[in-house]
Amino acid sequence: MTATAPAPTITDIGQIAxxxxxxxxxxxxxxxxxxxxxxxxxxxxxxxLQCGAVRIMLSAPEGEFKPGGGTILYFRVADIEAAYSQMxxxxxxxxxxxxxxxxxxxxxxxMAFLRDPDGNALQLMCEKR
Length: 129
Hints:
- This protein has helices at residues 23-33, 80-89, and strands at residues 15-19, 37-41, 46-51, 54-59, 72-76, 99-103, 108-115, 121-128.
- It is α/β, with parallel strands linked by helices.
- It has a single domain (15-128), classed as 2,3-Dihydroxybiphenyl 1,2-Dioxygenase, domain 1 (Roll), CATH 3.10.180.
- The strands form 2 sheets. A 4-stranded mixed β-sheet has the order 1-4-3-2, with helices on one face. It has a 4-stranded mixed β-sheet with strand order 5-8-7-6, covered by helices on one side.
- A hairpin with a 5-residue loop joins β7 and β8.
- 19% of the residues are buried.
């Protein structure tokens, strides 16, 4: 039997990449409609946004990376009804309204599903105490 090295410790998510068909259009959606903070652009093919402690990279298609992939981003909000109303007023088309997903011992988990202009799946999530 051989000794194995301990597994590396992953502490958090530093960045999430989302492949989009039009970086400018996607940046406008994420900033103007969802309220994320723009950080910087790296030419017309990349835009970087801040969401809490996580950086989001919007990227033009390259190689096997195509818009509308299978990644789902869950954006935590303190008040899901208020966030839903504000985003809906900005023109976000939600797939469903905020709804209860599960009752936990100390909170309820609520979500509302939406898509960005390329069809990438997004969720608002709220843990109601």
